[in-house]
Write a structure and sequence with these properties.
The protein is about 35% helix and about 25% strand. A six-stranded mixed beta sheet has the order 5-6-7-3-8-9, sandwiched between helices. It has a three-stranded antiparallel beta sheet with strand order 2-1-4, with helices on one face. It binds adenosine-5'-triphosphate. One of its GO terms (molecular function) is ATP hydrolysis activity.
Length: about 220
């Protein structure tokens, strides 16, 4: 079974009298070690899909399994544990805590796990090194550039060794050079065995992925 399996999945938003069919009959699977781009025009359903894959929302119809687990069958606390253990999130505008330094920010996803304090620090330092930020570990977010902050966000997404990394426009807020650097970092992670799904409008990013899933009006129109 693939790491991610989506079958006949639909998402319908109900607001008062209105129904919006944000996703219609989606089928897709993602294997371990793939880097997959999700593209499509504004309002096509990309975020709705990413939210379901990230267990932040549930589908209205159909089936989703992550590592053979069906998130829709879990309680809220089980779901929170699954998210914490299996998924690393990277957003366009990273949400580092301003009063925490780099090392403290990167350790955050580990605080809900039963891991010794000294081990947490070591795990965080390892991923901080991986993204080339070891000399900045004591700095606070406001002392870093946008690209450096995004590298810290990537380290934080990685620290718990999640099964999958979900990235929403990870280079969208960066200048071209910094964006290329961050993209290179994500590619290195995939080369080392990580699985990444990236929502992007950027052709340079999607062209570097193994596969592009294009969504239009809630339907997959290409998966190549
Ligand atoms: N909470 C909600 N309630 C009602 N409709 C929603 C909600 N969230 C999204 N939608 C609608 O679902 C459709 C898909 O939205 P979605 O945000 O998934 O698109 P998107 O491809 O991520 O767009 P963008 O690229 O602009 O971020 C749109 O028609 C949107 O208006």
């Amino acid at each position: 079974m693939a790491l991610i399996e989506v079958q006949n999945l639909s998402k319908i938003y109900r607001n008062c009298e209105n129904l919006t069919y944000a996703l219609k009959n989606i089928h897709m699977s993602v294997e371990q070690g793939e880097m997959v781009a999700i593209t499509g025009p504004s309002g096509s359903g990309k975020s709705s899909l990413l939210n379901i894959l990230g267990c932040l929302d549930v589908q209205s119809e159909g089936k989703y399994t992550l590592n053979s687990v069906s998130p829709q069958q879990l309680s809220r606390s089980q779901l929170a544990q699954l998210r914490n253990r299996e998924i690393g999130f990277i957003f366009q505008h990273n949400i580092l805590l301003s009063t925490y330094n780099v090392l403290e920010n990167v350790q955050l996803p580990l605080q809900y796990r039963k891991i010794r304090k000294s081990d947490r620090k070591e795990m965080a330092l390892n991923v901080i090194k991986l993204v080339g930020m070891e000399s900045q570990a004591k700095k606070y977010p406001h002392q870093l550039s946008g690209g450096q902050q995004q590298r810290v966000a990537i380290a934080r997404a990685l620290v718990g060794t999640p099964s999958i990394i979900l990235a929403d426009e990870p280079t969208g807020a960066l200048d071209q050079n910094t964006g290329r650097h961050v993209l290179g970092l994500l590619k290195n992670l995939v080369d080392a065995g990580s699985t990444i799904i990236i929502v992007t409008h950027d052709h340079e990013v999607s062209s570097q992925c193994n596969r592009i899933v294009k969504i239009v009006d809630g339907e997959i129109v290409a998966n190549i």
